Amino acid sequence: MILRSRARRSLTAAPQEPAGHALARARGVLLLALCLCLTLPLAAQAPAAEKRPFDEASWSLFQKVFSLVLRDYVDSKKPEQVVLGALQGAAESAGPECAYVPPAEVKGYVALSEPGPTLPLYVTKYGDFARVLAVFPGQDPAVRPGDPLRFIGTASTYDLTYPQVLQALRGKDGDSVKCVFLKQDAWQSYEVTMTRRMPPPPRVIPLGGDGAALALPCLEAAPSAAVAAELEAARGPVLVDLRGCASFDAGAALRWAGELLGPREGPPMKGSRGTRRLALTGPGLLAGRPFRVLVDQSTARGGEVLAMALQGGGGVLVGAPTYGYAPMIEDIPLENGGLLRLATAYFLGPDGEMVKEKPIAPAIALDFPAGEKPEETCRRALKAPAPPSKVEAEKPQPDTRAKAPEAGDAGEKK
Known about the structure:
It is built from 11 helices and 19 strands. Strands 1, 11, 12, 13, 16, 17 and 19 form a 7-stranded antiparallel beta sheet that branches. α1 crosses α4 and α8 runs parallel beside α9.
C-alpha cells in the first residue's frame, strides 16, 4: 500500500500533531486505498502492455475499506465525497506538488499561469505544511528558506492541496496578510505580515568595467526591450543571478533560456516517456559572450532548469549548491472537467542524474557574507578564479546561433 510520506526536507523534530490532523491523515490512508480500488475497472480495460499486477487479496482489501468508510466512519459520508478525497490522496501521494484539481477549482488554478499579485515568496508542499523555497528581495529577513508556512491568513496550509496554496497566495495588489511560520531549527511559531504585489521584474545591474549582472528572482515576466538593450550595451562578462529564483513553471525557464541562448536544444529530462529535450527559441542575448550563473539553496525548480540550460550553453555555475528539485509538471485534463497536476519527468543534472533530492553543485564555490551589497557579491562572482577545466570555456566565442526554426518546427526533440 502506498502511504503519503513527509516532505523530503522534513525537520529533525515534528510538533505534536493535533487530533484532527491525525484523524485526517488516517482517513487519507483509507481514501487512498479506496482510490486504488476504484481504479480496478480502468486497469482491467487497459492494454495488456500497461496492466499492473494486482492480486485478488488486495482487491478484496480495497473493497472492504470502501465499505467500512461508508458504513462505520463517525460522520456520515456520501460516496462522491469519499471518491473526491481518494482522488486527492492518490494524486498527492505521487510526489511533491502533485494534486487533483476538482472541476470547480480548475478556472482559478488555470488563472495562476498569468502573472498576478502574490505574497512575496515561493513555496512547495508535500504531505503536511507548505514550506518556503525562496523569498522575494527586500522582504523581512526573519522568513528563511525551509521554514514551514502554517497559515496564510486563517487558512492552514496543512489542509490545502498545493494548487489551493498557490491560490491562497494570490489576491488583490496591496493587500496585507498575516502569515504564521515555524522556525525550522527550533519549531517556534512566528508571525509576519506580508503584502501582495506583482513578482519583481528582471533588472540589469551595471558593474562598471567589471561587466553587468542580470537579476532574475522571478521567471514569470519576459525580458523587456529595455533589459535587452542594457544587456547589449554592457561591456565585459555577464552574471545571471538566479538566487531566490524558484518559479514552479519549467516552461517559463525554457523560454528564458531561449531568450538568453538562442535556438538550441534545452536540457534533457527523463520520465516514463524516456529521455527527451525541448527545443529553445529566442534572440540569444548572451550568445557568444562569456557569462556565469549565480546560484544558492534558494535556486529551485524553474531556477534550476534555467541554470542547467545556461550551463549547457557555456555558462559557469558559481555560488552554493541549489535546492535539488527540478520536475516537469504537466496538467492532464480529466473526463469530469478536473485536472491532474503530475510530475511526468525530472530534468537531468550535469552528472546525468535526475535533479530530485539532488542539489546541483556549482563549479566555483562562493560564500555570501551577511550585509554585503548585491553589486559586490556579483563582482566577486565574476572575478572568482575559474577551475582549469572552465578557463577555455569562458573565453569569448563567435556567435554561432542557428537560424530560428519556423513556427511549426519548435517542439520536442527526442
